[in-house]
Amino acid sequence: QEIIAPGAFDDCLEDDVRCLFNHSSESVLGRTAAGTLEIGVDNMGLYYECQLDSMNTDHMNLYRSIQRGDINQSSFAFTISEVQWNYSEEMDTRTIVKCECLYDVSPVTYPAYQDTTVSARGKEDYDKMKNDISEEKQSEINKREAFAMRWTNFKTKTNK
Questions:
Q1: If we measure between CA atoms, which residue out of 111, 24, 126 comes closest to residue 74?
Q2: 29, 97, 103, 110: which has the highest count of C-beta atoms within 10 A?
C-alpha cells in the first residue's frame, strides 16, 4: 500500500510542470512556465487546472472524451526525496513524505491511484466558478474586517 503524506508536494509547487495526456511528452496540454497550467495542494491532495487550446484538435478531442466520461482519472509523475516504510504482517505501507520533483500531471486511461479524477469544464463554467469563489472570499474578507473593526471599537471602548 502506498500513501502520499499531506505536504509531500509542497516543495514542488514551483517546478516547471507539464500537463500531458497519458504521460506522453508528445501530447503536451499545458505547462506552468507558459501559464497554461496551474497546480496546487488542498485538503484532498494535489490538483491541477489546465487551459486547453481550442484551436488544437487533439486538445478538443481529449476534452470531449473527458466530458463523456471515457477518460475520468488522473496521474502524476514525480521523484521522491523522503519515504517511510511501515512493515506489518497484514500489509507493508510506503508513505511518501516528500517529493523531490513533480514532472507532470496527466489525465490518463489507466491511473496508478484509482481514487484520482479529472473533469472538463467550459471556459464559461470555469469563469463562473472562479467568480463565485472570488465573491465568497470577498464576503469572508468583509466579515473579518467588520469583526476586526468591532474588536478595535470594543478594545477602544473598554480601554477608556
A1: 111
A2: 29
